[in-house]
Design brief:
Distance between the termini: 38 Å
Strand content: 5-15%
CATH class: Alpha Beta
CATH topology: Rossmann fold
Structural class: alpha/beta
CATH architecture: 3-Layer(aba) Sandwich
Largest sheet: 9 strands, mixed
Length: 330
Amino acid sequence: MDPFEAHPADAGRRHFLISGTAAVAALSLPHLASAAAARRMPSTSSPHSSTHGVKQMSNFVKRPDGANIFYKDWGKGQPVVFSHGWPLSADAWDAQMLFMGQHGFRVIAHDRRSHGRSSQTWDGNDMDTYADDLAAVIEALDLKDAILVGHSTGGGEVAHYVGRHGSKRVAKVVLVGAVPPQMVKSATNPGGLPMSVFDGIRDGVAKDRSQFYQDLTTPFFGANRDGNKVTQGMRDAFWLQGMLGGHKGQYDCIREFSEVDYTPDLKKIDVPALVVHGDDDQIVPIDASGKMSAKIIKNAELKIYAGAPHGLTFTHTDQFNKDLLAFAKA
């Protein structure tokens, strides 16, 4: 069966989804139907001072180029740091943050630049800068022994952070439906997706990103599969988070999740790693991503969720939360 085959009710959208959304590799699912209200509420966590030369405001870290990176910081204990995917925000991790916080962990998630509440920058929307922004948040909060969790593009960000900044502040790494080692097809990556797929994504985002993001929820959540439990709330939260981001930054990010080769970064991960992927991921097909990453990362553990879509952290919340907690405590 064609992995992008739509339900008959979605047949009219099938071509659009294949050429424009089928491989969007960087999304992180929305977790709460109340995301609109949550997005407007400040974090209740107390400010944490920094001794590492990073200028910090309440719930924001200011970068050298003037960009303000929003983060939320809840609870106490060993830090778990979440990196969301394209085109969403830190709110995509709310279900995991609440769960891990209730189990004794300090949970932190930031909005990538040009996403969510962070600055909408014209320049600097590249993976090097994303990884450096993540490092700035970690340093501003002086996090140590952190567990880094990245979904989709966020998985690329986590891997690139380790590749650029090392693992001195990192205890463990979790990649979920993540884009590494590389999305686009090339001579060195014959199992990747053709560039035409990503050109279609660029075209959809440039012309009508609102409709594009609405349509994207179908393969993201597996709404075109029999027996799915996708709600309108999931779709609405996804769309809202996407539309709050900057248009130029989200457009630029397409290159970062599709063309960057994260293989060197994966080889530098020298801490325990968990790779989680759904075998029905219509966005980031498992064979060229999760299975490959688990082979490249030394001693990585691979967990495959049968029938799970790209947005498995919502559709398989209980299963993923249980696995994340067990890995964090191991």
